[in-house]
Amino acid sequence: MRRLVLVGPGHAHLFVLEALAQARWPGVETVLVSLGPTQLYSGMVPGYLAGQYALEALSFDLEGLARAAGARLEPSGAAGLDVARRELRLGDGRTLAYDAASFDIGSLPAGDTVPGVRAHAVALKPLERALPRLLSARETGPVLVVGGGAAGVEVALCLQARTGRPTVLLEDGGHVPRGASGAAARAVRGVLERRGLTSRLESRVTALEAGVAHLESGERLPFGTCVWATGARAPELFATSGAAVDAGGYLAVRDTLESASHPGLFAAGDCAGFVSGQHVPKAGVYAVRQGPVLRDNLRAFLTGTGTPRPYRAQSGFLSLLNAGDGTAVGAWKGLAFHGRAVWRLKDAIDRRFMERFQRLAR
Question: Which of 1, 240, 327, 332 is deepest in the core (most CB within 10 A)?
């Protein structure tokens, strides 16, 4: 019996679990390692912050998913990896040997080593820890959202819609959302202005203390809640694992999603770094497309049937940002749209994705 260890219940691993639920892979034992018995779908978290969804609507029952796939759930998380021994160290101190291991654990917030961030800001990751604090009725004063990417924009708009508190969006780059087309940036800027949100560009936080953010310019910004929604940095798990990592510290993988240094070690989603040079942004839509490729290549490795196939990142995708007020901003191939119809489209896509895997867990 060969053992497959799936570390993290990310988007790509959902497709592996679905395949195992449909037909077990002969001679393969599967273990799903998670941090707790549930997983939140990040695409619907802003809607939850805005009060549009109950928590159950964006929650995956990992025990149910594991049971459907014939897998064992280990909910203490992963604390270490030794690729020479082919062992994973679990959060409770036990070790778990593997024949194949796949990582879909996302990334960590960049810049969280800035002085005071860990003590005085709410980091968006992990979501399970962030949400209770973000919705605390005791919090007062302005909301400061640091990071002007898609996640930061959505969180700022949705928290403001829910709480009515003054909200400032801080971005150290030149426009919001970071990396968006000109049309999308103009559409988002219009929504922010109509809603009365302040966006500050070319502004970098150098330190946080209780209730005050210190900027590189010397300015001090007061806040009641500071949300740290910056870009991604690599998980710390790989640094001492013995596996090859890319320049950013992400697990180095070939286009087949298999490790560039160790056969049988795979990664997908934000935690993977592609050594081929193909550009794969850290966004959930790419992890979803990687899911079927990861599924097929894990099966080929473990069962000796089939040929590994490469993942090719899509050239673009439909971006949908929840504005928290029953509208959304959509961007596609240089065009941008805003309105209630865009929100209904986003809601339908998200609910369909959730229902697919929640039904499997049931």
Answer: 327
